[in-house]
Amino acid sequence: MSTNHIPHTDDPLTVTTLDGTVWQRSGVTHTGRGLYVLDGVTVCPDHIMATLDELAEHGIKALSQPLAPSAEDVTPQVQKLREILAGQRAEQRHLVDPLDHTLEALAPRTQDGGA
Length: 115
Description:
The protein is an alpha+beta fold. Helix content is about 35%, strand content about 15%. A hairpin with a 5-residue loop joins strand 2 and strand 3 (about 35-40). It is elongated, with a radius of gyration of 21 Å. It starts with 13 loop residues before the first strand and ends with a helix. The mean pLDDT is about 75.
């Protein structure tokens, strides 16, 4: 069999649901979606495996948990971005709002030294 017909997927190799269960990608559908089994399971029929969409219904930690704060002090970068945004506010408000909210979310971390 030619390997040209093996579907490619960009779905992650492992997924952890909110209940702490770890799932390993064990197969790929003909449309290129990953098929997952519980970590440690070595044999499982395709029709029993879960897709990433099915696991997402239960919540996925990697995609639903906030990012850990950076150990680096990002205050200078935040200040520079604030200055750039200040010049853009009037003419491109629809583009600036999402960035401004992101900077506001970073502000508490930068005010106490980045921690």
